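A.,

Following up on our hallway conversation. Structure tokens first:
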């Protein structure tokens, strides 16, 4: 991949009735350091499977030991207090003037060039753009996998510019969950489905691991495969289990990079239905996709071009209640209204079809304001056109 494109029985805490698609919250225990072990974070960084806790706890049948609660007064909370955060943030994602420059000995590549984007909690947003537009780079910034060069970036009230390495690991584990096109990035093929889902919870010291893992597998329609090893399942089945793994630590933000890119159309529809149920329960979701049918079902679609937001599309109300209908041709129907985005400097990017209607002009245009409308035209063109 090119450098500028990218460097994946329920015991609820509180009372209430569980509904379909609801993500149940579980009590968490403080984390303990694990001697001689690597971690599995929400970004899919895999760990050595045979680990042992600092007090010598033995691993279970899956080869993974439970992480016991840490002693009070550990340094983790002190570090987290040092990170700059925003109380009760208005937005889940708040990016302003975001810049990312990749440098080599000979060249510099400007992957993001002043990107501005705000996504509220509970939104389901799709990010689209051509290869090299900067969408995967932006996803890596949000996920804590890469560090921006300049600008402002808050996710869930956390300032990603101020994080220490330890805080960044905790952020990737607890705040964001990843679903990758290449689901091997966060799956252990030699473990069962339920053991895979339990791994992040063991690292975090979460209680009721098996119960929550079964709930998540039921949510993604894989409960009947809970004892199957991942290597025996199809790609679509593995992708659904990858979604359950990404949700294991109840992240505030679910990130998905081309989640339907390696599956057939029917499986892609099933994955979209899972995302829709999660979003209805309040989960914030950001999906990077080239899947035209998927993007046309999402309520908000943000297009990136040349490292900046170029336009947005909003789902028409007439289609908002028809997402589950099989009679809609989602690839060809005009299901969304498109809007250009004007940044703080007054810059905007015209949609490609509009540029074609202007004769493919990329130079000077005449700008006029008439009857409450801004009009663009080629110099010397017929004013009546």
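Then the amino acids I'd put at each of the 385 positions:
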């Amino acid at each position: 991949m090119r450098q500028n494109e990218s460097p994946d029985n329920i015991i609820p805490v509180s009372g209430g009735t569980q509904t379909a698609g609801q993500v149940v919250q579980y009590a968490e225990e403080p984390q303990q350091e694990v001697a001689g072990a690597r971690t599995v974070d929400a970004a899919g960084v895999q760990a050595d499977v045979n680990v042992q806790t600092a007090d010598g706890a033995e691993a279970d049948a899956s080869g993974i030991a439970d992480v016991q609660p840490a002693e009070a007064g550990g340094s983790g909370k002190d570090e987290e207090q040092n990170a700059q955060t925003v109380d009760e943030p208005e937005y889940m994602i708040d990016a302003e003037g975001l810049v990312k420059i990749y440098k080599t000995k000979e060249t510099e590549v400007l992957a993001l060039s002043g990107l501005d984007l705000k996504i509220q909690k509970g939104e389901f947003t799709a990010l689209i753009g051509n290869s090299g537009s900067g969408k995967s780079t932006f996803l890596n910034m949000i996920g804590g996998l890469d560090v921006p060069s300049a600008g402002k970036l808050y996710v869930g009230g956390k300032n990603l510019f101020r994080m220490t390495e330890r805080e960044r690991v905790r952020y990737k584990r607890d705040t964001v969950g990843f679903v990758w096109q290449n689901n091997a990035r966060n799956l252990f093929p030699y473990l069962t489905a339920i053991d895979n889902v339990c791994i992040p919870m063991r690292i975090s010291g979460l209680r009721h691991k098996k119960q929550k893992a079964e709930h998540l597998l039921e949510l993604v329609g894989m409960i009947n495969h809970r004892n199957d090893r991942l290597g025996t399942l199809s790609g679509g089945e593995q992708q659904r289990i990858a979604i359950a793994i990404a949700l294991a630590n109840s992240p505030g933000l679910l990130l998905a990079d081309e989640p339907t890119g390696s599956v057939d159309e029917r499986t892609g529809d099933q994955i979209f239905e899972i995302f829709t149920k999660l979003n209805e329960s309040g989960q914030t979701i950001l999906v990077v996709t080239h899947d035209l049918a998927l993007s046309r079902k999402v309520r908000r679609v943000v297009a990136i071009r040349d490292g900046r937001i170029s336009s947005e599309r909003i789902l028409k109300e007439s289609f908002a209640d028809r997402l589950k209908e099989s009679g809609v041709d989602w690839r060809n129907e005009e299901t969304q209204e498109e809007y250009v985005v004007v940044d703080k400097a007054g810059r905007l990017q015209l949609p490609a079809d509009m540029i074609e209607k202007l004769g493919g002009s990329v130079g000077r245009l005449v700008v006029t304001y008439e009857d409450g409308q801004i009009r663009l035209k080629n110099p010397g063109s017929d004013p009546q056109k």
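Confidence is low (pLDDT under 50) at residues 1-82. Curious whether your intuition agrees with the design.

B.
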